[in-house]
Predict the 3D structure of the following.
Amino acid sequence: MAKSDYQLFVIGGGSGGVRAARIAATLGARVAIAESFRYGGTCVIRGCVPKKLLVYASHFADDFEDAAGFGWRVPPATFSWPELIAAKDREISRLSGLYQDNLQRSGVTVLNGHARLIDRHTVAVDGQTFSAENILIATGGRPYLPAIEGIEHAITSNEVFDLPQMPRRVLIVGGGFIAVEFAGILHGLGAQVTLAYRGEQVLRGFDHSLRQHLHDAMVARGVRVLLHTDVTRLSRRQDGTLDAQLKGENSSTEAFDAVLYATGRVPATEGLGLAEAGVTLGERGEVKVNEWRCSNVPGIYAVGDVTDHIALTPVAIREGAAVAQALFGTNPQPVDLAVVPAAVFSQPPIGTAGLSEERALQRHGEIDVYQSAFRPMRNILAGRDERTLVKLVVDTATQKVLGAHMIGPDAPEIIQGIGIAVRMGATKAQFDAVVAIHPTAAEEFVTLKDKVTRRREA
Ligand code: NDP
């Protein structure tokens, strides 16, 4: 067989694709990568990174307010959205440039353009064709919008980062990660935020204590949360105002300056020629893969959001690395996703590792639940009533900690460490054997005493 142009051709320059390309090249393979938008992918360009910068920005509102309790007199603060967005853009450009530089430094051929499969060993990028022994699909996802009348007036997380001005009255539709994160961001920056969610409580799938706590904290901060509420129609007035028809427990038509849909994401598999290459796609358009992230076509792999599995950057990175190691390394290992800690950068933020109480009960039958809610030290002088919640879910039979959950300042930072213990299968007694660091909020994880035992109903 004639030598292929590349041993690995990666389509998509986001977290998963870039990691796979760099590792493969470092292992000595001939690698090319193609990206049609900007290197860095959703996480760097319009996801995790700009979101976190906006979360930092919005937190200053709390800081200015709380400072008075510590003796500071802060003059009335003003905020400039265009300045924040410009600063964010500079950082995103810097990071995107770094991604490209690092790829090139690793010896990867970096292409800018839309790639599509011609057959299982041929990729075309804007008319130019390349042969490849292996192809990795790492094209990520895109926002999903339900087909309601006037949906074209809505924005998504793709557009919200680039609005020229911050909208004053915002409707956020959805109750997942993006919805609650942007509710906190925009509220903190001074917008009037209404969140409309169709279900009974935000963050479906998370531990019920976290969901209730976040809901109550958002409401107490001034976010208007409408549960059991659907948006059935959007229309735009001549002056640009949007009218949203709300149906459910709260039926009305209300005016907003922007309507942000955060109703999930779908895999970006259109226009890639996957069907032509014989690749099996699932119901949502996702590439179906096995534990090695190989599709039904040998030599065609997929990682990250395009597989519609766990849509988190570190998961895509792990998967990309695993594919590169399996193809060109000496010690291939499938990706182990037994415990995937996660954070929601809501306000207050959430950190979680392992099973929710509901899931643990379902799987293990009998569990011990330890929980503590307290006012973090800073809130006392600040005059803030918001409480922090810390919770451990323990298997009664083995005493292993199945889940660790926290909502409150620094929860994501704290849970990353706790996740190690959960992943290692630590028991409650092993948590308790660790000496506390005082005064911290994290010490609650090693001092929890009050236990409630729950049994699954027959
Ligand atoms: P999510 O899946 O988290 O949430 C989607 C929300 O939209 C749910 O509340 C869902 O309701 C609702 N929804 C879905 N379809 C409709 C519909 N037709 N009408 C009304 N509501 C609807 O998606 P996001 O868009 O918030 O985020 C996408 C993914 O990106 C996340 O799942 C996560 O993996 C990732 N992400 C991670 C972040 C982090 O790590 N901090 C931050 C942001 C995103 P229901 O619950 O009833 O299905």
Q: What stands out?
A: The domain at 342-453 is CATH 3.30.390.30 (Enolase-like; domain 1). The chain has three domains: 6-143+266-328, 151-263, 342-453. The mean pLDDT is 97.
